[in-house]
Amino acid sequence: MVTKSSGDSPFIIRSQMPEIYRTASHLKKNSPEEALGSIRSAYRILEDHPDTSWRIKFLKLESDIHFKLGDNLKSLELARQGLQKNQLLDDELTVSDLMYNIGRAGFRIGRLDLGLEMLIRATDIYRRLDCEGQLASTHILIGKSYRRLSEIPRATHHFYRALSIYEEMDDLAGVSSALNNIGIIDIMLNNTREARDAFQRVLSNRQQLEDRKGVAEALNNLGLVHLHCSRHSEAMECYRESLSIKREIHDRKGMANTLNNMGNVFNDMGEFDHAMSSYEEALEIKEKIGDRAGMARTLSNMGDLLFKLHRLDDAVRHLTESLQISRELSDTELMTINYGILYAIEKSREDFREALAYLKLKSQLMESVMDRDVERIVAEKKIVYAADRIEKDNEILRLKNEELSCSNRKLQDALRQISELSGLMPICPKCRRIRNDSGFWEEVEQYFIEHSAARFTHGLCPECIEVYYEGLRKLQRDADGMSGDG
Fold it and tell me: CA 177 to CA 107: how far, in whole Å?
């Protein structure tokens, strides 16, 4: 427990703040609530002994912890407070770190406009300060933001920028992160061969790093590629290996997702009993961990499978439950799918009134989705336009800074040369040699070569030309007067 000490504030800050900060940072990963307790004790000390620098450090750390806990709004607000206070200190690295925190929280809550603005500005600072690791991770997050906005070329550009930086750093974990995102883009574009190659590289890197969770995720993604290509046996082999690892490391959410994927493969292969078994196990895990969105998807898959098995009442029951959850979560895409399956079920029963009711609900939902999609697309284009303007402004500023730095270097060189030739220079009035700083006498040309950027070439002034050529003419006349026979 931290106690208030008597004495001046600087002593208290120096003696207590570093230890509290180290303790909170150590607890952040495995005991975030205890870490928050340590931070609160630091704030109590800082109320009596204000120190802006330490206040900002703890705000940044608290923002990190709340992000880890999933409280994205709190994380964003804390980072904003830190950014506001940092105006007094003008610490660029802290500014960029806080901007990154705002950007990643903005991405999580769907505020892509705010997120992109902060992330793009952070990249400019990280680049200027040569913070390669932070720069690469920021490019990854910008790429994910653009991918969510369906700006695939821009997203790909940032993922490859990150990949290039991580490869130069020889950072296998970073390379894997960039390749994983590139592989997802390739799947979206139906570039299955490129996606497979990307995920295969990720798998190799994760194995080299002995990252079991990363290996399981890479295998899961390779399974998705094989499933996309209807290579069911290869997909199932990847999923089974991935599931085995996730069971070992107790990754319950990962287990549920892989089981759901295995159910989809069995479903495609017509092995309905195995498919239902996989879905049921996935649903049980998702219920235990409170994954409502995952539950809704699995229930919908089970309803569709039960329809194929002609167990219509069971199918309606699962689809109705999925529909209830998807309404709560405003998942219009899943609601549309469920209405479509329910329409097909009632039509197969020849209950056309009920079938028509579901068809109307599906049509109304699709119309509202289309209207919202138009609004969303317009809003997203505005976000992309604003982000593009920020990137261009940053690039113009970077080029101007480079031009200014070049001009400054030239000016400094010129000033240095002027400085070197300033002051009194002792020169011999007869031989015209100059005495240097060591006391030795040098030719004028040599002295200027050593003390300036000047270089000498030779020529004759008009007076010397006249003297020189008069001597040549005299020699010529004497030669003409001589006999050729000698």
Answer: 17
For 228, the token pair is: 């996309």
pTM of the model: 0.68
Q: Dihedrals φ, ψ of 441, to 5°? A: -95, 130
Give the type of residue at 426.
P
Cα-trace Rg, the chain: 37
Ordered structural domains, the chain, with CATH: 173-265 (1.25.40.10), 291-367 (1.25.40.10), 434-477 (no CATH)
Element (H, E) at 435: strand 434-435
Tokens of 165: 């930086």
Phi, then psi, of 366 in degrees rounded to 5: -65, -40
DSSP 482: S
Q: How many CB atoms lie within 10 A of CB 293?
A: 14
Q: Are 333 and 372 in contact (CB under 8 A)?
A: no
HSE (side-chain half, CA atoms, 13 Å) at 131: 18
Q: Which residues pair with 441 in a beta bridge?
A: 435
Rounded (to 5) percent helix, strand, coil in the chain:
80, 0, 20
Amino acid letter, residue 128? R
Using CA atoms, how far apart are residues 136 and 248, in angstroms rounded to an integer? 31
Using CA atoms, how far apart are residues 140 and 174, in angstroms rounded to an integer?
Answer: 10
Tokens at 289, concatenated: 């961990």
102-118 tens-digit pLDDT: 999 998 888 888 889 89
CA dist 326 → 255, 292, 353, 365, 480 (Å)? 22, 9, 24, 13, 117
Query: In angstroms, rounded to a whole number, what is the distance separating the alpha carbons of residues 306 and 273?
Result: 10
Phi, psi of 412 (to 5 degrees): -65, -40
Please enumerate in sequence order all residues whose Cβ is within 8 A of that of 270, keeping only pairs 6 or more positions apart, or say none: none
Give the integer Cα–Cα distance in Å for 323 and 339.
Answer: 8
**Amino acid identity at 479:** A
In this predicted model, what pLDDT tens digit does every residue of 19-69 receive, in sequence order?
999 999 999 988 999 999 999 999 998 888 888 889 999 999 999 999 988
Residues 320-359 as b/e (b if ≥16 CB within 10 A, e otherwise) read ebbbebbeeeebbebbbbbbbbbbbbbeeeeeeebbeebb
